[in-house]
Known about the structure:
The complex is a heterodimer. Chain A is mainly beta.
Amino acid sequence: xxxxxxxxxxxxxxxxxxxxxxxxxxxxxxxxxxxxxxxxxxxxxxxxxxxxxxxxxxxxxxxxxxxxxxxxxx
Amino acid sequence: xxxxxxxxxxxxxxxxxxxxxxxxxxxxxxxxxxxxxxxxxxxxxxxxxxxxxxxxxxxxxxxxxxxxxxxxxxxxxxxxxxxxxxxxxxxxxxxxxxxxxxxxxxxxxxxxxxxxxxxxxxxxxxxxxxxxxxxxxxxxxxxxxxxxxxxxxxxxxxxxxxxxxxxxxxxxxxxxxxxxxxxxxxxxxxxxxxxxxxxxxxxxxxxxxxxxxxxxxxxxxxxxxxxxxxxxxxxxxxxxxxxxxxxxxxxxxxxxxxxxxxxxxxxx
Lengths: 74, 268
């Protein structure tokens, strides 16, 4: 299945801004994070089709999946 | 001493040119009466006379008066907080409540506007308070050199989140929701920043830090990102006070200065 993955802030460094990814059926949000070598504790927000989701949320064909890091500096 | 407000108004009018009164003239009137400079300028604004320092804001006297009667609490006086204080003080907010327990150190020099070699080792809130008086002597500041508590936001119309840790931000957001004060959130890391307005209806800060914390090492923070995000925060604060313009409501703004990419994130 194809899912559009969007990365934000420093998650883009050495990766991409937006990419259509071919993923296995039943793939979860967390598995995509792991496959991108993003540490789960660095993740602030996960959104699937503009709704909040969790690491164990299952993705589906045509989904738009966005991953945001924690940004905390001031 | 001139005590009667009605007696002071003619003095103000006498010093008014084309609808504006200069700072020195207003100060002179204040020193010859029992009124403070802030009270003299309030009286002027109530009669559609603008203090000259606000001329280039281009706001109407009624709006400038609204800003001047407002109180903004700035929590954290480092990169974001210092810039917010500078912008809001110049714009003409009447009262700033500044909270920060720290002193300036050398690693602050890259991004904190009031950090200079002379101010190293001095309390951030004290340095800001003095510098802001040089910019706007009508400004009233309350300085809190301690970690934020309820005294830091009491009486504030708007609170600016300029903290630097996820846990402290969540605590501040909870306190502001309890007090029902809008919290203008901003955060930065490297080339990247985010902005949102946390209210009871959206709990943006809890959303952004939902998954947990961040590394304990101080984040890298570039000055241009700080300047941008602080300016966005100050703009949201002024719009909230003035009651006009589009204030970020449900989602938040992601700022990527490296790729020149800005995206408003809406949540359903």
